[in-house]
């Protein structure tokens, strides 16, 4: 068995008396989509922040690509190859779609301290940016200011910027949020194909998408992972049914 | 929407036209006013790099302006009294050479900006404003209480410093020096804002989280921007001191920081020619309204209020519209 790309080993995080994460262990294997689900307030956001590096766990460790990244910040984890998309689109709003994508490509390439050459004429960066934008279907909107984009287009751009990073793993926080049926239907096959380039840790509320995409599902309730397994096993799991899914979601 | 480059060119050539007209009609005072505009605009270009591109609201840029001024004052005063600056371990003499003074002014203000930036960029928002203001006051009171270089009275330099091949005492030749330097600084600013560094810095201003998520640390970007900003404002300080042939602690005062910020806001934050238009309007108001009333700052305040409330891109934004640059 190969070693997991992302290995979260027993992390805990408390805020005062609230235990937001309690001994959470989670792995992401190469080539898989691992979905993390749980009701509101289960601690998904806190967990994501610890994986991305915004928060430091009180105990436990996080391993990525064979090294301990527990003490690294978000910048270092991004450089190590963790590509993140945000639950609420987090983009440079006054810039164009293309500029946002070029920024992603620039972050990947490094060499940011270049003061003279026009970055929007850098053929190598432009190529990466254009490729990512056309993959998500934003090729026609390259010149649009992000502030003028629709909500759905911003979600697409989030994914495109992550693509420009050609990360080793994706950390996607509700990529389907607010997309509506049609948008979700378009994004689902795209993520399906993406797993072979880099595995995805997917936090998602849309259960149709989760069960369509996930190789494995972990269920987080009150900061604890109560079950991890294949979609079918999760569907049958009595504890999960009781805690979260409810019968109608399973049919 | 190509109005802004046209406007910029008109402003830049307009300043030159005013000076040529003043020379033709023998109005040296007008040339001096235009030189003031060029120098203060240069200080504003420096601040605009931090404030406009980087979103760093510094209320302490008088530090760099003052350091530039004192670099000139100290070097020139030693040269005019024929007393060496330092005798041991190496002999360092004063100088009356502008290029040397500029280099010293830029190096000293750049180093100060690195130090101040390294500390204050750990904070943000109103704390950043307060900490830069505090540094400014530190330098102000230090200059007041430093008797070796005039203390509160400041330092007078009897003859303007020299530039190889030029007669700097001729107002138009000194204007030419300042005008060319302003042009070079604007060119640098325009290249910088379109460079990889400028893109990342602008993105960090708009959304620090986004920049970090693609693996770029905003702190380093901001520190470099702050240091470059200090270098340019410091150079402006050296020229300003040479224009007046006088330096005093006023250059370090928080009012000076505020005025530089007014140039930028009045003209248009982050707009290439914002500081130029801002400084020109400021000097014009000072000259015209200052003649009418001692309390001309009230009218300046009213103008500033109108600009801030109704023209978010400053005067440039009002005329040229929202910034568009999506290539």
Description:
The complex is a heterodimer of chains A (251) and B (327). Chain A has 251 residues and is an alpha/beta fold. In chain A, 37% of the residues lie in helices and 24% in strands. Chain A has helices at 44-52, 74-80, 97-109, 123-136, 151-164, 180-194, 207-213, 231-236, 238-245; strands spanning 6-15, 18-28, 33-37, 59-64, 67-68, 82-85, 169-173, 200-203, 216-221, 224-229. In chain A, the strands form two sheets. In chain A, strands 6-7-8-3-9-10 form a six-stranded mixed β-sheet, with helices on both faces. In chain A, helix 3 (97-109) packs across helix 4 (123-136). The radius of gyration of chain A is 18 Å and the shape is globular. The mean pLDDT of chain A is 92. Chain B has one domain (3-320). In chain B, strands 1-2 form a two-stranded antiparallel ribbon. At the A-B interface, helix 2 and helix 3 of A face helix 6, helix 7, helix 8 and helix 9 of B.
């Amino acid at each position: 068995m190969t070693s997991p790309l992302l290995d979260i080993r027993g992390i805990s995080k408390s805020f005062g008396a609230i235990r937001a994460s309690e001994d959470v262990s989670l792995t992401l294997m190469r080539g898989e989509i691992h979905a993390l689900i749980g009701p509101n307030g289960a601690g998904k956001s806190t967990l994501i922040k610890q994986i991305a590096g915004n928060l430091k766990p009180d105990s436990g460790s996080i391993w990525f690509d064979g090294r301990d990244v527990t003490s690294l910040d978000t910048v270092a984890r991004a450089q190590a190859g963790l590509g993140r998309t945000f639950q609420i689109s987090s983009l440079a709003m006054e810039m164009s779609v293309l500029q946002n994508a070029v920024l992603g490509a620039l972050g990947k390439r490094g060499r940011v301290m270049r003061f003279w050459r026009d970055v929007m004429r850098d053929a190598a960066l432009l190529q990466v940016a254009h490729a990512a934008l056309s993959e998500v279907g934003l090729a026609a909107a390259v010149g649009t200011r992000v502030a003028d984009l629709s909500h759905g287009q911003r979600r697409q751009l989030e994914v495109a910027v992550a693509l420009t990073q050609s990360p080793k793993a994706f950390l996607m926080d509700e990529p389907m949020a607010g997309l509506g049926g049609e948008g979700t239907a378009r994004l689902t096959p795209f993520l399906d194909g993406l797993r072979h380039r880099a595995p995805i840790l997917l936090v998602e509320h849309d259960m149709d998408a989760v069960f369509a995409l996930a190789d494995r599902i972990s269920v987080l309730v009150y900061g604890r992972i109560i079950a991890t397994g294949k979609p079918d096993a999760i569907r049958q799991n009595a504890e999960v049914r009781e805690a979260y899914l409810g019968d109608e979601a399973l049919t | 929407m190509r109005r802004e480059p046209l406007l910029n060119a008109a402003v830049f050539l307009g300043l030159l036209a005013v000076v040529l007209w003043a020379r033709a009609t023998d109005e040296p005072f007008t040339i001096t006013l235009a030189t003031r505009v060029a120098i203060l605009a240069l200080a504003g270009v420096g601040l605009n790099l931090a404030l406009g591109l980087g979103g760093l609201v510094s209320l302490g840029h008088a530090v760099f302006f003052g350091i530039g001024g004192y670099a000139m004052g100290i070097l020139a005063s030693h040269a005019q009294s024929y007393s060496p600056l330092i005798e041991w371990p190496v002999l360092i003499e004063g100088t009356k050479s502008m290029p040397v003074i500029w280099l010293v002014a830029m190096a000293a203000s750049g180093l100060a900006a690195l130090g101040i930036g390294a500390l204050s960029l750990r904070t943000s928002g109103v704390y950043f404003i307060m900490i830069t203001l505090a540094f400014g006051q530190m330098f102000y009171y230090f200059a007041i209480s430093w008797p070796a270089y005039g203390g509160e009275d400041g330092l007078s330099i009897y003859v303007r410093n020299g530039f190889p091949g030029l007669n700097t005492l001729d107002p138009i030749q000194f204007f030419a020096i300042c005008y060319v330097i302003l042009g070079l600084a604007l060119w640098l600013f325009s290249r910088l804002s379109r460079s990889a560094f400028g893109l990342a810095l602008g993105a960090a201003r708009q959304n620090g989280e986004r920049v970090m998520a693609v693996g770029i640390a905003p702190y380093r970007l901001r520190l470099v921007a702050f240091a470059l900003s200090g270098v340019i404002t410091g150079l402006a300080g050296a020229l300003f001191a040479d224009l007046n042939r006088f330096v005093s602690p006023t250059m370090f005062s928080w009012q000076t920081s505020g005025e530089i910020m007014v140039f930028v806001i009045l003209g248009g934050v982050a707009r290439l020619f914002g500081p130029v238009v801002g400084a020109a309007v400021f000097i014009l108001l000072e000259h015209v309204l200052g003649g009418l009333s001692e309390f001309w700052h009230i009218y300046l305040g009213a103008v500033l209020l109108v600009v801030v409330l109704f023209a978010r891109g400053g005067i440039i934004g009002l005329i040229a519209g929202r910034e568009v640059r999506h290539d």
